[in-house]
Amino acid sequence: MDWHTLLNTRLPVSMASTDSLLILLSIVIVLFSLYIFGNHKRNIKRNILPGPKALPIIGNLHNLLLKRKDMRSFLTEMSAKYGPVFSIQLGFKKTVVLSGYDAVADALKKTSEAFTERPTIPIIHKIHKGHGIIFSNGENWKMMRRFTISTLKNLGMGKKLMENMINNEVDLLIKELESYKGKSFKSGNIITFAVANIIVSILIGQRLDIKNPLHLEHVGKIEESFLLLANPMVLLYNAYPSLMSWIPGPHKTYIQNLTKVRNMIEKSIPEFKSELDMNEDKNLVNAFLVKQIEEVPGSQGFFHNGNLVTLVTGLYGAATQTTAITLQWCLLLMAKYPEHQRKVQEEIDRVIGAELPQEEDRNKLPYTEAVIHETLRYQSSDGAPYQTTQDITIKGYLIPKGTHVLPFLPSVLSDKNYFEKPEEFNPRNFLDSNGNFQQNKAFLVFSAGRRKCAGETIARTELFLFLTRLLQKFTFKPPPDQDTVDLTRLIGAIVRPHKTEICVVART
After folding, report:
1. What residues does 502 pair with on adjacent strands?
2. DSSP letters of 266-302?
3. Terminal CA-to-CA distance of the chain, rounded, Å?
4. pLDDT tens for residues 36-87?
5. Which residues are bridge partners to 489 per DSSP?
6. Distance between CA atoms of 269 and 473, rounded to whole angstroms?
7. Extents of the domains making up the chain
8. What are 163-214's pLDDT values in tens digits?
9. Alpha-carbon span 314 to 312, nearest angstrom
């Protein structure tokens, strides 16, 4: 039989043989699919992440130290050169950097389950030992976050009670500003203490006194610590902790500052216990100590003093520094750009008049909201690093479980695909063509995913009430001896203004 005859011969096929053929065909398809998938995965693994060439032992530290670049400038430059996903190496440890909204959103929104843990940062672990919320992981993080959010809600977060607490501090700030009678002042400590007293009231039910040297010292140490986190010596400590522990420098100052603040809080615990109220959440520390007493003996305890001290230190530092510095920027920007200040004041006058601004007025003040959002965007922090809990693929690159990943938030908030002229202060980024406020999906100031900032609600309320009430009463201008306001930035864990002096004039 020739091949032509064979190919055209109809062979009898039984039902059983048909099933066998289908099974065989299915096996072939599955094996072929596994081959394609495996080959694709191997190809992904072979895709070496782009990034600057790392030297033995030091990695890319020379790019920062020899060229005297801060981390933000370095990462901005690398983002422009290498794209949305690249790697850097500081000492022996590699970090994957995600740049731009699309890459960061792929990570924190689409694969949020892989971004629930923080890496161990040596200088932070040296002080906080993995306690608290910000740099803790696993069940400890879940328990502390759940407790904190629940307690903040019980203490008035998102309610009128919180508004009243904020307005009490704004009242005192307004009286202080009125005393300057049109003269210039440095907004730093004045604004910081006004904001700090809100979180301190929530934490321990007390207020700080700006004239108390001890309070001034502790506030100053926390401010300095936020700046020191970007110091080259701190980078070196995180790269070589054993070696750098023998060498003096700013990294030692950072450790000493926060250790002193922690010691102060720890020494106050017996006093807090002596005033304990088992029947009322009068403040966060009281609520924590009640949980400590109620905790079952012999169980895996979470409500121990280590968590309490770290929780208070972290909440105070994060809540005070971020909001206070944003408010300082806001007032400086109003003085720098009087046309924006005038529009906010006109909107407040038209909608609220002389009445007390309230949280519910937010939707009626679109330009004011746009200015607040643009200020947050304009001076954003770098964001916190993560350690992946599983293998993930971002933009075609396989990122293995356990990798340090930094979603570089300034690149998101200056992404030209989502913000027009991002290098400029431009409230129109949050306004539609009719002047209505519109959210921008790339506005990730408070991050995204499961470790999104727990204090976002309080921060938004504080900024809105502080700004509307201050611009209702005052106009802010450059100091008399200056034509404009200096917007030079000091780069730290938070970007703060180099100079905070402005002139405050009562509105008539």
Report:
1. 185
2. HHHHHHHHHT--TT---SHHHHHHHHHHHSPTTS---
3. 109
4. 445 444 444 445 899 999 999 999 999 988 877 889 999 999 999 999 999 9
5. 497
6. 40
7. 15-46, 61-506
8. 999 999 999 999 999 999 888 988 888 999 999 999 999 999 988 887 888 8
9. 6
Which H helix or E strand runs over 175?
helix 160-178
Helix (H, G, I), strand (E, B) or coil at 506: strand
Please count the other Cβ atoms lying within 10 Å of the Cβ belonging to residue 120: 14
Residue 503 counted as an annotated binding residue: no
- Token pair for 394: 């971002």
Element counts in the chain: helices (H) and strands (E): 19, 11
CB under 8 Å to 45, separation ≥6 — which residues? 398
The CB density around residue 49, as the number of other CB atoms within 10 Å, is: 16
Partners of 437 in the β-ladder: 431
If you compute the radius of gyration of the chain from its CA atoms, what whole number of angstroms results? 28
Q: Thinking of the domain 61-506, which architecture would CATH place it in?
A: Orthogonal Bundle (1.10)
Residue type at 239?
Answer: A
Can you tell me which residue has the tokens 């008035």?
156
CA distance 267 to 260: 11
* Per-residue tokens: 69: 């670049």
Task: Strands of 3-92 (E only): list them.
Answer: 85-90
pTM above 0.85, yes or no: yes
Does the pLDDT at position 31 exceed 50?
Answer: no
C-alpha–C-alpha distance, residues 309 and 316, integer Å: 11
